[in-house]
Design a protein that fits this description.
Elements (H helix, E strand, L loop, with lengths): L1 H30 L12 E6 L3 H17 L4 E6 L4 H23 L3 H4 L6 H8 L1 H20 L4 E5 L2 E5 H4 L5 H13 L15
Parallel strand pairs: 1-2
Antiparallel strand pairs: 1-3, 3-4
Length: 201
């Protein structure tokens, strides 16, 4: 019976590990979004966005419209980096998460090793291995994602900022962004003053 329980626990740990690995790979693959056009002499519109599905989906929709309208424009994208401290805390939480899951599935009590009284919650976790591991995994992921979420949707045209959600408080409508890009492509000019975002509210 003990062997079956250990085998099941190890299988659970493998599933969670592969899930985390897949999530990390998907995140890193989306971080460096392939350039939709690649010419050195054309204008470059770059999106730096929050690494969440909603923001990535918005970028893809906007990029499609822009790409269809302006064949001469190159579109790049990337993740807007969160504060370094938040990244460090998220990484530490991820390590603790997997360490605790490993201890639970293998029947190891880390509190006894360090000479600390074992909390009742840990006793409960060891008695409910599968449920506690899944709960720990998904709760920790939620906190980690919150820590690295920036809420950014920053757009630059040839290196000049033309829209900032961090400063305006919202994502532009596609019509607003197209109008701004039209002015750049047809006329050019200086970076839009952040105060001008207020007129769109």
């Amino acid at each position: 019976m003990g062997r079956f329980r250990l085998a099941g626990a190890l299988s659970l740990l493998l599933v969670l590990s592969f899930s985390e690995l897949y999530s990390s790979e998907a995140s890193s693959s989306e971080q460096d979004v392939p350039k939709l056009k690649h010419q050195m002499t054309v204008p470059v519109i770059k999106f730096l966005v929050c690494n969440s599905w909603g923001y990535r989906n918005a970028f893809q929709q906007y990029a499609k419209v822009i790409n269809e309208r302006y064949s001469e424009v190159q579109i790049d994208a990337g993740n807007y980096p969160p504060p370094q401290l938040n990244q460090m805390i998220a990484s530490a939480l991820s390590f603790i998460k997997f360490a605790l899951i490993g201890c639970i599935v293998c029947g190891i009590n880390p509190f006894e090793i360090v000479g600390v009284e074992t909390p009742q919650l840990y006793h409960w976790a060891r008695e409910n291995t599968a449920y506690s591991c899944f709960m720990l995994f998904f709760l920790s992921n939620a906190v980690e994602n919150q820590l690295v979420s920036t809420g950014a949707f920053e757009v630059t045209f040839d290196g000049q900022l033309i829209w900032s959600k961090l400063q305006s408080g919202r994502i532009p409508s596609i019509d607003e962004l197209i109008k701004i890009i039209d002015d750049r492509v047809n006329v050019g000019g200086n970076t839009i003053d952040m105060n001008e975002f207020a007129q769109f509210h």
